[in-house]
Amino acid sequence: MRQTIITITLALFWSCSQTSSEAESNNQQDQHQENVEHNHIVDTSQSKPKSPPKMAMANIGDNHVHIEYHAPSKRGRMVFGGLVGYGDVWVTGAHSATVINFSKNVKIGNIDIEAGKYALFTIPGEQEWVVIINTNWDQHLADEYDQEKDLVRLLVKPVKLTQPVELLTFQVTEVTDNSGTISVSWDDILVSFEISNS
């Protein structure tokens, strides 16, 4: 009789313990699910960067031209003569300097440029822009810009667009096997210049 009572007691203890473990396990799973759902909500609510990283590239003959930049949006703002001042050296994007990489030697405005990475700056103006190719490609905005490191300073005429471009956009276009154009458009302005393989 005593052995039966002990057996029943142990069975009840084991059953309660098992139920408690299952409840704890279920509670942990519920908390985990809540965390997953919470994290999911946090992840989807994160705002996209206002100036996301972008790339533009194309082959001009056997020369691969590759541009990396950060693309700001207009967002209802006055861009040229407002957000981007006339007469100021501009990174032609946001954050880091816009980087242009040539896999082969090129010529821009009768200047020979060796294959490699360079910074691309511009100086916007109402009637004309200055396009700059600078040897210091790894810099923040135009903070470290040094005119003595310029390889090219090229005058170009801006073109007025009929439809505004919301996101700053670079484009590399092959025209012939040996030449092409690089263009940048934003708001109601497009600026382009020619390059050729050398």
In angstroms, what separates the terminal alpha carbons?
A: 104 Å
Number of domains: 2
Order of helices and strands: HEEEEEEEEEE
Largest sheet: 6 strands, antiparallel
Radius of gyration: 30 Å
Low-confidence runs (pLDDT<50, min 5 residues)? 4-25, 27-45
Strand content: 35-45%
Mean pLDDT: 84
What topology, given as strand order, has the largest sheet?
A: 1-2-3-6-7-8
Count of extended strands: 10
Structural class: alpha+beta
Helical region count? Answer: 1
Walk me through the structure.
The chain has 198 residues and is α+β, with helices and mostly antiparallel strands. The protein folds into two domains: 46 residues; 145 residues, no CATH class. Helix content is 22%, strand content 41%. It contains one helix and ten strands. The strands form two sheets. It has a six-stranded antiparallel beta sheet, with no helix packed on it. A four-stranded antiparallel beta sheet has the order 5-4-10-9, with no helix packed on it. The longest helix has 44 residues. The protein starts with a helix and ends with a strand. 20% of the residues are buried.
